[in-house]
UniProtKB/TrEMBL annotation:
Residues involved in ATP binding: 69
One Gene Ontology term, aspect cellular component: nucleolus
Organismal lineage: Eukaryota, Fungi, Dikarya, Basidiomycota, Agaricomycotina
Subunit and interaction comment: Heterotetramer.
Family of the protein in this entry: Belongs to the protein kinase superfamily. Ser/Thr protein kinase family. CK2 subfamily.
Localization, UniProt: Nucleus
Name by which UniProt lists this protein: Casein kinase II subunit alpha
Amino acid sequence: MARVYADVNATLGPGWYDYESLKIEWNVPDRYEIIRRIGGGKYSEVFEGIDLSNEEECVIKVLKPVAKKKIKREIKILRNIAGGPNVISLLDVIYDQNSLSNSLVMEFVLNSDWRDIYRIMSEVEIKYYIFQLLKALDFVHSRGIMHRDVKPANIMFDRERRKLKLIDWGLAEFYHPGTEYHPRVGSRYFKSPELLVAYKLYDYSLDLWCVGCILASLIFRREFFFRGRDNDDQLVKIVKALGSECFERYLAKYDLTLRSDNPEFLNSYVKQPWTRFICTDARHLATPDVLELIDKLLRYDHQERLTAAEAIGHAYFNVVRLQTPSNPAECFSDSGFYSA
C-alpha cells in the first residue's frame, strides 16, 4: 500500500475514477489549423496548431487507434487535474470524420530540448526544475493518480519564462491499494526496479524513482543516468550502482523472483558512493544535500523512497521555497535567485 494518498479514490468514489462510464462529447476540428509536427510516439502524433477563434497557439495530440477506455482514461485524468500546479491543460477534444481520428487539444508551452540543457543548467535552475516537477507530482498523487511515464520528454520547460508543465497522461492511472497494475509502462531509462522485476502492486513511488533519475542526470551531467540496452541490462546498470546486497534484500522482502538469463546478475556488486559519479566540471553541483536527496529517491524498495511531499520539504530546496514571486521569471538573475 502507498505510504500516502492510499485512500483518495475510495474517498472520492466512482464518479471520480470510473473513466469507463465517461461520456465524451467530441467537437469538430474546424476551428484548429495544424502548423507543424513537433513530436510523436507509439500512441500519438503531436502537432503545433492555431486556434483560429482567438489566434492562440495550441498543441494538437492526434491519437493513434487504441482501446476506447484508454482514451477515456486520459481525458478523465486530464479533467480531474485541471488547474493543478505545473500540469498541462486540456482545452478541447475533437473528432475528425475524414480521418476518423480523435485528438486532444492542449495548451502550448515553449520547450527547451533536454539534450540542449541537461549539461548547462545552473544549480538554481536545477533546483527550480525539480521542485516544480515535484509540486506537479504531489498534486496529482493527492488526487489518486500515478503518471507512470515521468521523463524529460514529458516535461515541457520554458527556460526563459521559467514555466514547467508535466505532459502526456496517456499511461497515467488511478491508484487503488491492492490492485495489480501492468508493469509494462514507463520508458526504459526511467523504469523503476519494481517495473523491471514485474512487481504489479506498485504505487505513486514509481514516479519518484523517475525524479531521482532526472536529478542524477542533471547533477552528474549524463543525458540518462541509467542507460540499458534492454530491460534486463537496465536493471544490471541499477544493480551495479546500488549494489547486489540491497537488491537481494528487496527481492526477498516482496517475495520476488528474478527471471533473467543475463549472466551479469550472477556477479556481486558493491553499492557505489554517489561521489563516484561527480564530473570534474560540475563538481559545484554535487553538494551533500543533493547527494542525500538522490540517495533517498533512488532506492530499490518503493516504500523507502521519499514521497513527493517529503522531497519538496528537503533542505536542498530551501532557497526555492524562500522565493515565491507571482512571476517565476522574477526568481532568476544571471547568477541565480534575486534576493527578496
